[in-house]
Design brief:
two-stranded antiparallel ribbon, mainly alpha, about 180 residues
Length: about 180
């Protein structure tokens, strides 16, 4: 709501800060859902496509899709972390994390993340998930990751994801075709 020059309240005027906060919360929730559900959605589709079609083509298609999604999610996390974590429960969480960062163990962990190689980030992303690794690194260091780290996590996870589901579909092709 805004006030006019005469002091009247204009209820029809949108509050841009609330709208921006809502937008950030919505996108953040969508990225979180993607990170949790990608294996159940894109993974299952990739598995079945690899079983019924050319697994190598499926690998490259899934790799491209995952790479675009993970680059977009990682870039968004890196750009909007402060606004996302500053809303609601993020304030309390960020205060607790700051205390942990400043402790003896926290300082070591942050140092390892900051000095770690891009290859280590890519391997961590392949094991966990690009969005999870980007988010954890952002939480633990409190600093932006940078484009190179985001590309490393996105590439590490995307290659692993595409390879696993394409190979599983290819390896179980005969069983799936005979039984489904």
């Amino acid at each position: 709501m805004t006030r006019g020059t005469d002091g009247s309240v204009d209820a029809a005027a949108p509050d841009s800060s609330k709208r921006a906060t809502g937008h950030i919360a919505l996108v953040g929730s969508a990225i979180t859902a993607y990170a949790v559900l990608d294996a159940y959605t894109l993974g299952v589709v990739a598995f079945l496509l690899a079983a019924y079609t050319n697994a190598l083509v499926v690998f490259f298609l899934v790799l491209a899709i995952q790479l675009v999604l993970n680059l977009a999610a990682g870039s968004w996390i890196d750009r909007n972390w402060e606004a996302w974590s500053a809303a609601g429960i993020g304030k309390r969480f960020e205060a607790k994390i700051q205390k942990a960062r400043e402790g003896r163990t926290g300082t070591r962990i942050v140092g390892l993340i900051e000095r770690g190689s891009d290859l280590a980030f890519a391997i961590a992303a392949a094991i966990a998930n690009a969005v999870v690794v980007d988010g954890l690194a952002r939480v633990l260091t409190g600093k932006p990751l940078g484009r190179q780290r985001i590309v490393a996590t996105a590439l590490g996870y995307s290659v692993f994801f595409a390879a696993i589901f394409s190979l599983l579909g290819w390896a179980l092709r005969d069983f799936i075709i005979d039984n489904l």
